Structure formats: structure tokens, C-alpha cells
Amino acid sequence: MNLDNFRIFNKDELLERFLATLRSEIEIADKLNQPVLILVFGHGDEGNHGIAIGGDYQLNAPRLTRAALRATLRDSVDTTLFITSCYSGGWVIKPQHRNLLTAPPSNKPWINISAITGAGPENESRSWGISLSLRRRAGGGMLATCALKALMATAEVSKDPTSLYISQLESNITEGPDGEDVTENPTYVALAKSVHDALKEVDPTFWADHEISFATQDDKWASEWRARSGFLLVNYRNKWEALKRAPANPQVWETPTSKEQMFRYGGGLSLRQQHGVVASKALAYLRSSPGDDRLGGNLAVHAQLTALVENSANFDAEELHYLSDIVDYRMALIDVATDIVKYMDLNFANGVGYDTLKWIEHHSQSTMSLSVNSPQKPSLSQRKLDLYRKVLDYIRNIRLFDPPTREQGPGYTKPKEYVAIAIAEAGISFEDAQKRLNEVKIGEFRDSDLS
Description:
By secondary structure, the protein is α/β, with parallel strands linked by helices. The chain has two domains: 11-242, Rossmann fold; 258-368 and 378-450, no CATH class. Helices cover 42% and strands 6% of the residues. The protein has helices at residues 14-32, 66-70, 142-157, 188-202, 207-210, 225-229, 236-242, 258-261, 271-286, 296-310, 317-343, 356-369, 380-397, 414-426, 430-441; strands at residues 36-40, 51-52, 63-64, 79-83, 114-117, 172-175, 181-184, 213-215. The strands form three sheets. Strands 1-4-5-8 form a four-stranded mixed β-sheet, covered by helices on one side. A two-stranded antiparallel ribbon has the order 2-3. Strands 6-7 form a two-stranded antiparallel ribbon. A hairpin with a 5-residue loop joins β6 (172-175) and β7 (181-184). α3 (142-157) crosses α4. Mean pLDDT is 76; it is low at 100-107, 158-184, 248-267 and 447-451.
């Protein structure tokens, strides 16, 4: 890593320049027979798994797609992709395959790479808690922390730069069937396990819900991981610590121009008046227990809405319009979820104000408090959690709620969690839950059913 070899691009051309740079690096790596490591950080889209790269905010950010990435790759180059975005598991769990009409028949996926992703194909990734002392700045993704922990341990344990091993990945010498020593080199599957175990250690309550996913190029899980991945660990700690630290100062927003001040919409409101209207809606939303601040779909949105309510940042007319659409969409979706619960004849609290995060944490902690060696039958909390998770997966699979448009911001998890919790609390069977949800999905749910 050369700290002087960083390129800084305009946000509007960031994706285009990234792809061009990657294409060039892949070509060079092919000639030199070297691996390539790709790290991508951005908000992910539900459904198509696109990743927002650049732009002013997520609405107008260009999207990195699987097709665009595939166009830069070469099968002859060992490539590792590290992504932390929401729904990123779709890049490896649901890979795109070659079109048989335009390419020779092949059993290989269209994107044939090694990969580590930050969430399942239907799940949002989770970050560490937002720091109130740093003006609601997020503390970074859990996957990045766990991968870094594993790699830093490698550099810490190593005394010889040519022999870099994580303690649990150290080469083990065992005796083979013929009595000879057999060396077990650190493999990609061992690295994957190390990262997964690190997450379980740092976040025992929710580690299972992350659904971090791994893939290995050409299905070579047993191959030595360092040579193929491009994770170069010589002096890794020193180089990491040499990176510049971001200041703790709050972001400085430019003062709106006179043209923006004159912007009119929504009944002739000025920008200042519109700010007040949207701030009022934002306050109602933030008081409605809108879900975990750490989830990828909430992270930036909740921080922006809080800044709006606290009047600690300036927003132009377009940004206010965007935030207003997000709040309207999310509050309406909670109302729809409440109506669905009523239609399914579940006696449960209204979705607005119901704290789904508190319910999940309570039953997860109750389950964790039981001894793993306890001979008891599954506790009530465990049974509720098991049903909740099964129902939540089913809700995602049948697409009970339509995904948001780009104008409505990132996907919103609380409505799905709320319906799944209502079913878990009702104690009905999973089969009964499927039947009732299918009735809603196929169109038997009508406003008249609620009157």
C-alpha cells in the first residue's frame, strides 16, 4: 500500500472512474499473474443488489451493478470482492449466470470470484452504534471490524513477513495415514470461519442475523487463501495506523443559494417554511420507534432526520423533498403493516410506536442467558424467536411489501419485523401464518375488511 498513491475523484464521476481503474488493474494483474482485491463501500438496494457509488445522496447516486463489475473481470485473474452494503449476499448467494444465448454453455456463475459480503441477500447490514459525541457519526460496519480483527491478528502474531498466519489458521502438521507429516496450510474456508467467529464474539446477540456470506473463485475453498485473495499483510498494522484520521468536527453544509431560497413547492412554502414542515414530520417519525439506527437502511436516513430536527445542518430544497418522501413512505408502510395485522385477526399493538428492536433484543438476551448445556426444552423466548425468524424470511420471500422507489429512499425493515413479531406473539403455527400471509399477498386483503 502506497499512501501517496490515492486517487480522488469528483463524486459524480466516482463510479465511472472506479470501473475504469478496476479494468486497468485487472489487465495489469493478468499480465503479471497477480491477484486483485476489490473493496466496495456504499448503500445497497433491495431486489437488484445495486450499490450506490458517488452522487450527492442515495437518490441520485450511480449504481454499481453485478453486470458492470462482471464486464471488468477476467477468469484468469484471482479476484476477491469485499463489500459491506445491505443485501450484498445477493452477489454470491444469487449470482447471475451467463446468458446461454450469447455465451457458451457453462456451469460457472457469471461472477466467478472470491467474496466476503456484509449481509444476506434479503437483509440490511448492521453498523456499530452511532456516536452522540461525534454528531451522530456511525462507527463503521461490523463486517469490516471483524475482517480487520482477523487480519490484524495475522500481522500481530507474525514475526516473519513471509510467514503470516492468524493464530487459529496457523499451519498444523499432522501425521498422515502413511506415517508422514502432512502440512495443512491456512485455507480460504478457514479465513471465512475466522471472520464469522469474530462476529459471533463481538456481537453474540445478533451475529446470526447478519448472514454474512462467502464465495470462493472456482470453488477452491481448500486453497491457500493469501495468494488468491490479495490481502497483503506485510506491516499491515503500521500501514493501517498510518492512514489519516477523520476529524471529529461536524460536517459543514454550504449556505443555500438565493435561487434555492426562492424555491417554491407544496402550496407556496418558502425553503425555511418547508424545512419546518419536514422537520415536524421527521420528529413524529423518530418518536415512532422506527427501528435500529445501526441498520444500513436507517443509518444515514436517521442521522439526516435527526440533524433536520435539531437544526444542526442546512438542507436545500431537493434534499428536503427527498427526506419528506422517505418519511411519508415509511409512515405509510407502517400503517399498511398495522392494517395487515388487523386483517389477519391478530390482537396486537399498533405499528406506530411499537418498538420492534426492544422485542428482538429482549428475547435474544433471554435466550442467550440460558446455559448452552441446559437440558431444558426450548424456552418461550426461543420458540418465539424461531417462529419470528421463519416468518420474517417468508415475508421477504413472498415480497409482502413492495420495495421503495428510488425517490422513497433505502428499504425499510420495521414493517416486516412488526408483522413477524405480531405472528410470533399470537402463537399460531407457521403453517397458519403462511396461509394468512398468502391471503394478504394474493389480493384478498381489502380496506373494506378492516371496517
